Amino acid sequence: MKLLRSFVSVATERNFSRAAERLGCSQATVSLRIKSFEDMLGRKLFNRSYHLVELSGAGKDLLPDAQIILDHHDALVDKMRSGKVAGAVSLGIAEDYGEAFLSRLMRVIDSSFPGIELNVTCQMSVKLQKLLETRKLDLAIVTLPDKKSHSTLLSQPKLVWVCSGDYVVDRRKPWPMAFYSEGCAFRAAAEAALKREGHAYREVLTTASGEVIKSAVSSGTAITVMAEGTLPYGFAILSKETGLPDLPPSCIQLVEREDGLTKAAQQVKVSIKKLLGISLA
Protein backbone atom coordinates (compact mmCIF):
# COMPACT_ATOMS: atom_id res chain seq x y z
CA MET A 1 0.00 0.00 0.00
CA LYS A 2 2.95 2.36 0.58
CA LEU A 3 3.82 2.36 -3.11
CA LEU A 4 0.22 3.02 -4.12
CA ARG A 5 -0.21 5.74 -1.48
CA SER A 6 3.00 7.45 -2.56
CA PHE A 7 1.85 7.39 -6.19
CA VAL A 8 -1.51 8.98 -5.33
CA SER A 9 0.15 11.61 -3.13
CA VAL A 10 2.59 12.69 -5.84
CA ALA A 11 -0.21 12.66 -8.44
CA THR A 12 -2.32 14.88 -6.20
CA GLU A 13 0.39 17.33 -5.20
CA ARG A 14 2.28 17.33 -8.54
CA ASN A 15 5.35 17.80 -6.35
CA PHE A 16 7.61 15.24 -4.63
CA SER A 17 8.51 17.52 -1.73
CA ARG A 18 4.89 18.32 -0.82
CA ALA A 19 3.94 14.66 -1.23
CA ALA A 20 6.69 13.71 1.24
CA GLU A 21 5.34 16.23 3.77
CA ARG A 22 1.87 14.72 3.47
CA LEU A 23 3.21 11.21 3.93
CA GLY A 24 5.52 12.12 6.81
CA CYS A 25 8.69 10.83 5.14
CA SER A 26 11.64 12.18 3.18
CA GLN A 27 11.54 13.24 -0.46
CA ALA A 28 14.18 10.62 -1.22
CA THR A 29 11.91 7.90 0.21
CA VAL A 30 9.00 9.02 -1.99
CA SER A 31 11.24 9.10 -5.07
CA LEU A 32 12.49 5.59 -4.30
CA ARG A 33 8.94 4.28 -3.84
CA ILE A 34 7.82 5.78 -7.15
CA LYS A 35 10.83 4.27 -8.94
CA SER A 36 10.12 0.88 -7.35
CA PHE A 37 6.47 1.11 -8.37
CA GLU A 38 7.36 2.07 -11.95
CA ASP A 39 9.90 -0.78 -12.13
CA MET A 40 7.30 -3.24 -10.81
CA LEU A 41 4.70 -2.13 -13.36
CA GLY A 42 7.16 -1.68 -16.20
CA ARG A 43 5.52 1.65 -16.99
CA LYS A 44 6.52 5.27 -16.51
CA LEU A 45 3.92 6.95 -14.28
CA PHE A 46 5.19 10.55 -14.28
CA ASN A 47 6.80 12.96 -16.70
CA ARG A 48 9.33 14.91 -14.68
CA SER A 49 11.10 18.21 -15.31
CA TYR A 50 12.91 20.59 -12.96
CA HIS A 51 9.79 22.58 -12.12
CA LEU A 52 6.99 20.26 -13.13
CA VAL A 53 5.68 16.79 -12.33
CA GLU A 54 2.86 15.54 -14.54
CA LEU A 55 1.12 12.20 -14.89
CA SER A 56 2.08 10.15 -17.91
CA GLY A 57 -0.59 8.39 -19.95
CA ALA A 58 -0.17 5.27 -17.82
CA GLY A 59 -0.33 7.35 -14.65
CA LYS A 60 -3.59 8.96 -15.73
CA ASP A 61 -5.07 5.54 -16.41
CA LEU A 62 -3.94 4.21 -13.04
CA LEU A 63 -4.95 7.12 -10.78
CA PRO A 64 -8.76 6.61 -10.54
CA ASP A 65 -8.44 2.91 -9.67
CA ALA A 66 -5.56 3.62 -7.27
CA GLN A 67 -7.70 6.15 -5.40
CA ILE A 68 -10.60 3.70 -5.15
CA ILE A 69 -8.34 0.94 -3.79
CA LEU A 70 -6.83 3.23 -1.15
CA ASP A 71 -10.23 4.65 -0.21
CA HIS A 72 -11.71 1.18 0.33
CA HIS A 73 -8.63 -0.03 2.22
CA ASP A 74 -8.63 2.94 4.61
CA ALA A 75 -12.40 2.87 5.09
CA LEU A 76 -12.30 -0.84 5.95
CA VAL A 77 -9.54 -0.30 8.52
CA ASP A 78 -11.48 2.60 10.06
CA LYS A 79 -14.68 0.58 10.17
CA MET A 80 -13.04 -2.34 11.98
CA ARG A 81 -11.31 -0.04 14.46
CA SER A 82 -14.23 2.27 15.14
CA GLY A 83 -17.15 -0.12 15.26
CA LYS A 84 -20.61 1.31 14.65
CA VAL A 85 -20.66 5.09 14.39
CA ALA A 86 -23.88 7.05 13.91
CA GLY A 87 -25.07 10.65 13.83
CA ALA A 88 -25.53 13.66 11.58
CA VAL A 89 -22.45 15.60 10.43
CA SER A 90 -22.55 18.99 8.69
CA LEU A 91 -19.57 19.53 6.40
CA GLY A 92 -18.73 22.63 4.39
CA ILE A 93 -16.51 22.47 1.31
CA ALA A 94 -15.30 25.44 -0.69
CA GLU A 95 -16.45 25.06 -4.29
CA ASP A 96 -12.95 25.55 -5.68
CA TYR A 97 -11.73 22.50 -3.77
CA GLY A 98 -14.50 19.94 -3.55
CA GLU A 99 -15.23 19.03 -7.15
CA ALA A 100 -13.03 15.93 -7.41
CA PHE A 101 -12.72 15.12 -3.71
CA LEU A 102 -16.37 15.23 -2.63
CA SER A 103 -17.54 12.18 -4.57
CA ARG A 104 -14.78 10.06 -3.01
CA LEU A 105 -15.65 11.18 0.51
CA MET A 106 -19.39 10.62 0.09
CA ARG A 107 -18.78 7.15 -1.35
CA VAL A 108 -16.54 6.15 1.56
CA ILE A 109 -18.91 7.45 4.25
CA ASP A 110 -21.97 5.87 2.60
CA SER A 111 -20.40 2.44 2.14
CA SER A 112 -18.35 2.15 5.34
CA PHE A 113 -20.29 4.24 7.85
CA PRO A 114 -23.99 3.98 6.90
CA GLY A 115 -24.98 5.30 10.32
CA ILE A 116 -23.43 8.71 9.54
CA GLU A 117 -25.75 11.22 7.86
CA LEU A 118 -23.37 13.51 5.97
CA ASN A 119 -24.88 16.90 5.04
CA VAL A 120 -22.67 18.94 2.70
CA THR A 121 -22.74 22.68 2.06
CA CYS A 122 -20.71 24.19 -0.81
CA GLN A 123 -20.08 27.93 -0.55
CA MET A 124 -17.24 30.42 -0.54
CA SER A 125 -14.67 29.89 2.20
CA VAL A 126 -15.48 33.09 4.11
CA LYS A 127 -19.15 32.12 4.31
CA LEU A 128 -18.27 28.62 5.49
CA GLN A 129 -16.07 30.12 8.20
CA LYS A 130 -19.03 32.17 9.47
CA LEU A 131 -21.23 29.07 9.50
CA LEU A 132 -18.60 27.33 11.63
CA GLU A 133 -18.48 30.24 14.05
CA THR A 134 -22.27 30.09 14.48
CA ARG A 135 -22.09 26.31 14.96
CA LYS A 136 -24.09 25.54 11.84
CA LEU A 137 -21.25 23.35 10.56
CA ASP A 138 -19.12 20.75 12.30
CA LEU A 139 -16.25 20.80 9.80
CA ALA A 140 -15.25 22.83 6.76
CA ILE A 141 -12.58 22.52 4.08
CA VAL A 142 -11.70 26.11 3.25
CA THR A 143 -9.07 28.25 1.56
CA LEU A 144 -8.14 31.20 3.77
CA PRO A 145 -5.08 33.50 3.88
CA ASP A 146 -3.92 32.27 7.30
CA LYS A 147 -4.18 29.05 9.28
CA LYS A 148 -7.02 29.10 11.78
CA SER A 149 -7.07 27.67 15.28
CA HIS A 150 -8.73 24.25 15.57
CA SER A 151 -7.65 23.42 12.04
CA THR A 152 -5.52 20.92 10.11
CA LEU A 153 -3.40 22.15 7.21
CA LEU A 154 -4.27 20.05 4.16
CA SER A 155 -2.17 21.65 1.47
CA GLN A 156 -0.35 24.84 0.47
CA PRO A 157 -0.41 24.76 -3.34
CA LYS A 158 0.99 27.73 -5.20
CA LEU A 159 -1.53 30.06 -6.80
CA VAL A 160 -1.12 30.50 -10.56
CA TRP A 161 -2.60 32.68 -13.29
CA VAL A 162 -4.76 30.56 -15.57
CA CYS A 163 -6.14 30.96 -19.09
CA SER A 164 -7.62 28.81 -21.83
CA GLY A 165 -5.31 27.06 -24.26
CA ASP A 166 -6.18 29.54 -27.02
CA TYR A 167 -6.04 32.75 -24.95
CA VAL A 168 -4.05 35.53 -26.64
CA VAL A 169 -2.18 37.96 -24.41
CA ASP A 170 -2.68 41.61 -25.37
CA ARG A 171 -0.46 43.80 -23.19
CA ARG A 172 -2.06 46.96 -24.62
CA LYS A 173 -5.26 46.22 -22.70
CA PRO A 174 -5.97 45.73 -18.98
CA TRP A 175 -5.91 42.10 -17.84
CA PRO A 176 -9.47 40.67 -18.17
CA MET A 177 -10.14 39.01 -14.81
CA ALA A 178 -12.82 36.51 -13.85
CA PHE A 179 -13.08 36.63 -10.05
CA TYR A 180 -15.03 35.09 -7.23
CA SER A 181 -17.01 37.59 -5.18
CA GLU A 182 -15.47 39.73 -2.43
CA GLY A 183 -14.04 37.66 0.42
CA CYS A 184 -12.35 35.04 -1.76
CA ALA A 185 -8.72 34.41 -0.75
CA PHE A 186 -7.71 33.81 -4.38
CA ARG A 187 -9.25 37.11 -5.44
CA ALA A 188 -7.57 39.00 -2.58
CA ALA A 189 -4.15 37.56 -3.46
CA ALA A 190 -4.56 38.39 -7.15
CA GLU A 191 -5.75 41.95 -6.56
CA ALA A 192 -2.96 42.64 -4.08
CA ALA A 193 -0.32 41.36 -6.52
CA LEU A 194 -1.71 43.30 -9.48
CA LYS A 195 -1.98 46.55 -7.53
CA ARG A 196 1.44 46.11 -5.92
CA GLU A 197 3.14 45.96 -9.32
CA GLY A 198 0.90 48.48 -11.04
CA HIS A 199 -0.86 46.17 -13.49
CA ALA A 200 -4.08 47.48 -15.00
CA TYR A 201 -6.98 45.02 -14.91
CA ARG A 202 -10.73 44.96 -15.22
CA GLU A 203 -13.30 42.55 -13.85
CA VAL A 204 -15.09 41.01 -16.78
CA LEU A 205 -16.88 38.60 -14.43
CA THR A 206 -17.68 38.42 -10.71
CA THR A 207 -19.52 35.36 -9.44
CA ALA A 208 -19.82 32.91 -6.58
CA SER A 209 -19.80 29.97 -9.01
CA GLY A 210 -16.63 28.15 -9.97
CA GLU A 211 -18.34 26.66 -13.00
CA VAL A 212 -19.23 30.12 -14.30
CA ILE A 213 -15.60 31.22 -13.90
CA LYS A 214 -14.42 28.14 -15.82
CA SER A 215 -16.91 28.94 -18.57
CA ALA A 216 -15.64 32.52 -18.87
CA VAL A 217 -12.00 31.42 -18.96
CA SER A 218 -12.68 28.66 -21.50
CA SER A 219 -14.14 31.30 -23.84
CA GLY A 220 -10.64 32.75 -24.23
CA THR A 221 -11.76 36.22 -23.12
CA ALA A 222 -10.79 36.12 -19.42
CA ILE A 223 -8.12 34.81 -17.06
CA THR A 224 -8.36 33.83 -13.41
CA VAL A 225 -6.40 32.44 -10.46
CA MET A 226 -6.37 28.79 -9.39
CA ALA A 227 -4.35 26.52 -7.13
CA GLU A 228 -1.57 24.70 -8.95
CA GLY A 229 -2.59 21.14 -9.74
CA THR A 230 -6.32 21.90 -10.02
CA LEU A 231 -6.47 23.18 -13.60
CA PRO A 232 -9.29 21.70 -15.72
CA TYR A 233 -8.47 20.01 -19.01
CA GLY A 234 -7.71 22.54 -21.73
CA PHE A 235 -6.54 25.27 -19.32
CA ALA A 236 -2.96 26.53 -19.12
CA ILE A 237 -0.74 28.44 -16.71
CA LEU A 238 0.31 31.91 -17.87
CA SER A 239 4.10 32.06 -17.78
CA LYS A 240 6.29 34.72 -16.18
CA GLU A 241 7.05 36.02 -19.66
CA THR A 242 3.59 37.61 -19.72
CA GLY A 243 4.73 39.99 -16.98
CA LEU A 244 2.10 38.92 -14.47
CA PRO A 245 3.32 39.06 -10.84
CA ASP A 246 4.10 36.04 -8.70
CA LEU A 247 1.34 34.84 -6.40
CA PRO A 248 1.65 33.43 -2.86
CA PRO A 249 0.77 29.86 -1.87
CA SER A 250 -2.78 29.22 -0.72
CA CYS A 251 -3.70 27.72 2.64
CA ILE A 252 -6.22 24.89 2.31
CA GLN A 253 -7.29 23.67 5.72
CA LEU A 254 -9.83 21.53 7.53
CA VAL A 255 -11.39 23.68 10.26
CA GLU A 256 -13.56 22.24 13.04
CA ARG A 257 -16.01 23.86 15.41
CA GLU A 258 -14.36 25.05 18.59
CA ASP A 259 -16.74 23.38 21.05
CA GLY A 260 -15.68 19.88 20.02
CA LEU A 261 -16.79 17.15 17.63
CA THR A 262 -19.17 14.25 18.01
CA LYS A 263 -17.84 10.74 17.39
CA ALA A 264 -19.45 10.79 13.95
CA ALA A 265 -17.82 14.12 13.08
CA GLN A 266 -14.48 12.83 14.34
CA GLN A 267 -14.81 9.85 11.99
CA VAL A 268 -15.55 12.15 9.03
CA LYS A 269 -12.47 14.18 9.96
CA VAL A 270 -10.33 11.02 10.02
CA SER A 271 -11.77 9.91 6.66
CA ILE A 272 -11.00 13.28 5.07
CA LYS A 273 -7.40 13.21 6.29
CA LYS A 274 -6.88 9.66 5.07
CA LEU A 275 -8.39 10.39 1.67
CA LEU A 276 -5.98 13.32 1.30
CA GLY A 277 -2.98 11.40 2.63
CA ILE A 278 -2.60 13.57 5.74
CA SER A 279 -0.85 12.11 8.78
CA LEU A 280 -3.24 11.27 11.64
CA ALA A 281 -0.63 12.08 14.29
Automatic annotation (TrEMBL):
The keyword Lipid metabolism does not apply. InterPro entries: LTTR, LysR_HTH_N, LysR_subst-bd, WH-like_DNA-bd_sf, WH_DNA-bd_sf. Keywords: DNA-binding, Transcription, Transcription regulation. Gene3D superfamilies: Periplasmic binding protein-like II, Winged helix-like DNA-binding domain superfamily/Winged helix DNA-binding domain. Residues 1-56 form the HTH lysR-type domain. GO terms for molecular function: DNA binding; DNA-binding transcription factor activity. Belongs to the LysR transcriptional regulatory family. This is DNA-binding transcriptional LysR family regulator. It comes from Sinorhizobium americanum. The lineage of its organism: Bacteria, Pseudomonadati, Pseudomonadota, Alphaproteobacteria, Hyphomicrobiales.
